[in-house]
Amino acid sequence: MKISAPGFWRRLVSMIYESLLLVAVLFIASFVFHLIFRDTSSLFFRPAFQLYLLLVAGTYFTWFWTHGGQTLPMQTWKFRVISADGNRLTLKQAVARYLFAVIGIFCFGCGVIWALFDRDRQFLHDRLAGTRIVKLADKG
Known about the structure:
It is a single chain. By secondary structure, this protein is mostly helical. The protein has one domain. Helices cover 59% and strands 9% of the residues. α1 packs across α2 and α2 crosses α4. It is elongated and about 50 Å long. The N and C termini lie close together (11 Å).
């Protein structure tokens, strides 16, 4: 199967689709959290809730990336995340990619904007984690 690097704008639209699915996943996770921990006035409620959501999102991404290399939006857009040497992601690479992506996005999106200037058009979190996004060729 032939692979190539996907374009920046195509990946950006895929990320928007991904964010819609992630909001749904986090909504359900939030509902469960609030059912279990009803004391929202507790001093530790907000940081515990934020950490919980970060872990849920991390679990979502790392599971899909290590089990086939694709989330649902990535399947739709025919993208796959692989290691820099072309193999499947290890758990360590997937966790590193997720954490670097979170940091890069929260730093005014600099990790995503990086792809505009990268020689291979890869995101900063892919460079740092030793991974890359590839576009799978259409069958035909």
